[in-house]
Amino acid sequence: MADSTIQEYILEELRGMRADNVNMRTEFNKALLDLVERTARLETDNHSLMGNGNPGRIAVMEKAIGILKGWRWYVVGITVGAGGVAGMAVTIIFKR
Fold first, then answer.
1. 31, 50, 64, 96: which has the highest count of C-beta atoms within 10 A?
2. b/e map 59-96, b = 16+ CB within 10 Å
């Protein structure tokens, strides 16, 4: 009788360990899937930024910034010219 009770206790422990193992495996698989999804998202974002063979968003932004840098000298020239014209106009008006 004692032997059968011990056997039942051992079987219960083994079943519990098996259930814990299945739960642990399920959690590991969920974590692995999450990791794979995040890696795929990072790769997609990287290809979007760098271009994956085509001009990416970074290349487009660099080009736009280059154009803006070129325009800044036109703006400076127009501002200086307008300031000079306004200064001459004020001088002519107040000279009278």
1. 50
2. eeeeeeeeeeeeeeeeeeeeeeeeeeeeeeeeeeeeee
Joined tokens for residue 17: 């360990």
Q: Which residues contact 47 (CB under 8 A, 6 or more apart)?
A: 56
φ, ψ (nearest 5 deg) of residue 51: 110, -25
Report residue 8 as tokens. 């039942």
Region 77-96 average pLDDT: 88
Rounded to 5 degrees, what angle do the CA atoms 54, 60, 64 make?
155
User: Per residue in 46-84, pLDDT tens?
Assistant: 877 777 777 777 888 888 899 988 888 888 899 999 999
